Amino acid sequence: MIKVRGGERLCGEVPISGAKNAALPAIFASLLTTEPVIIHNVPRLADVETALDLIRNLGKEVVWRAETLEIRGGEELCWEAPAELVQRMRASFLCLGPLLARAGKAKVAMPGGCALGPRPVDFHLYGLAKLGASIIVKDGAVVAEAARLRGHMVYLDFPSVGATEQLLLAGALAEGETVVINPAREPEVVDLAELLRKMGAEVAWDGDRVRIRGRETLGGAEHTLIPDRIEAGTYLLAGAITHGRVRTIGAKPRHLAALLDRLSLAGCEVEFGENWVEVRGPTRPKPVDFRTWPYPGFPTDLQPPMVAFLTLAEGRSTVTETVYAARFGHVEPLLQMGAKIQVSGNVQVVEGVEQLRPAAVEATDIRAGAALVLAALAAPGESYVRGEHHLRRGYESFGEKLRRLGAKVWEEGD
Ligand code: EPU
After folding, report:
1. Span 26-48, pLDDT tens digits
2. Residue 207 dihedral angles phi and psi, to the nearest 5°
3. 170 close to 163: Cβ distance less than 8 angstroms
4. What residue ranges do the domains of the chain occupy?
5. How many whole angstroms separate alpha carbon 230 and alpha carbon 340?
6. 265-278 residue pLDDT tens
7. Residue 184 CA: which ligand 1 atom is closest?
């Protein structure tokens, strides 16, 4: 549980960790080679530990040194991923492509839905089948086989982050060229492509597509992960919601363009340099409308924290969630804190209130949890946010970083 005594202005600088969503595919990329893969700037997060448990189970050795991971070994990979680890974290499904490419066969549990609504993997399976895999889904698991994957053209009906990564990973060891049309272009996907390029694959971003030419074997590589734009956006919003002034150090402003645009419209003062961003919150935000959209659109992962901020706006904001069917886990608890939000289909209408009130609330996922902590920081008095384990999945040293900015927060164990 996180205890928050709200009402303090957050001010100061906060260092941003490496991106969780870049770390996870990079860890699975290490399955593609027997040579060492060295990854720097890796955040210490529960989800990263889950990915490491999984690759250890599959035959890899892992050594942590400060923020650096060295992953080696795995001449023989086990082709069955433990179902428990795949169900604990959806991103584990990304081991399917690498296992299939390396071992010729893979069995990975279907990840199922989650608190964000149903999250199918049909694009992943469609793409791998185009690359020549025979796929059957049986007893809740995917069993895929292919003596050698062959590059092919794959059109994605939606620019899915995971499906694009799955195809880049599989394509890196496939024979010939894989072309993904309508790929995701999130910075984390581009970061994975960069790592695969260092491992020996040829990758080219080309207008509406990304091309990857595979190799028979890939080599080791050394790679530094990009900073976490979602973590940065969360701290900038924590400053904004408390009328404070927060500067993030490390994250790239160009990765945050959509958020910074909406924050200026809401009346925040925004400044940035090459590797830092500073936001100063207004006394009361102006309402703003936005819709989530694949990069460079407004990131769905910042939708709940942004909604928390807009609950205090002077007027009505309309927020449309287009990436997930049901990313509204923050709404019920925010209502308990006095927010006025109406959900209709994928639209939230947020009627700003003058003040939020403290409450005991429960986080249902990482970003809903962040939204609730932000709301609690703005609500004068003591709030309790249960479900801290969700925050540990995605925010490194969350309490500590908030305290550096002057927040009164205590982690008390769930
Ligand atoms: N989708 C399908 N079929 C598929 C794949 C996706 O219908 O085969 C749908 C999903 O159900 C969803 C939409 O497409 O509605 C987008 O899913 P996408 O594949 O892009 O997301 P993901 O790869 O599962 C990653 C991040 C998420 C982030 C999304 C969108 C990682 C490990 N996770 O998920 O991050 O919300 O992209 O940007 O990279 C988080 O960090 O809290 C988080 C949930």
Report:
1. 999 999 999 999 999 999 999 99
2. 60, -115
3. no
4. 2-17+227-411, 20-224
5. 25
6. 999 999 999 999 99
7. 20
Instruction: Name which residue sits closest to atom 23 of ligand 1, judged by CA.
Output: 162
Q: Report yes or no: 245 and 206 within 8 Å, Cβ to Cβ.
A: no
Q: What mean pLDDT value characterizes the chain?
A: 96
Q: Is the fold of 2-17+227-411 the same as that of 20-224?
A: yes
Sign of CA dihedral 179, 183, 185, 190: negative
The pLDDT of residue 112 is 64
What's the first-to-final CA gap in the chain, in angstroms?
4
Establish whether residue 121 lines the binding site of ligand 1, counting it when its CB lies within 6 angstroms of any ligand atom: yes
**Residue 29: left (phi > 0), alpha (psi -120 to 50), or beta?**
alpha
- Give the right CATH number for 2-17+227-411 from 3.60.15.10, 3.65.10.10, 3.30.310.50, 3.10.20.310: 3.65.10.10
Task: Say how far apart CA 39 and CA 81 lie, in whole Å.
Answer: 22
Q: Does residue 114 carry a catalytic annotation?
A: yes
Q: Which atom of ligand 1 is nearest to the CA of 294?
A: 38
DSSP letters, 254-287, are: GGGHHHHHHHHHTT-EEEE-SSEEEEE--SSPPP
Name the CATH superfamily, with its identifier, for domain 20-224. Answer: Enolpyruvate transferase domain (3.65.10.10)
CB count within 10 Å of CB 344 equals 7
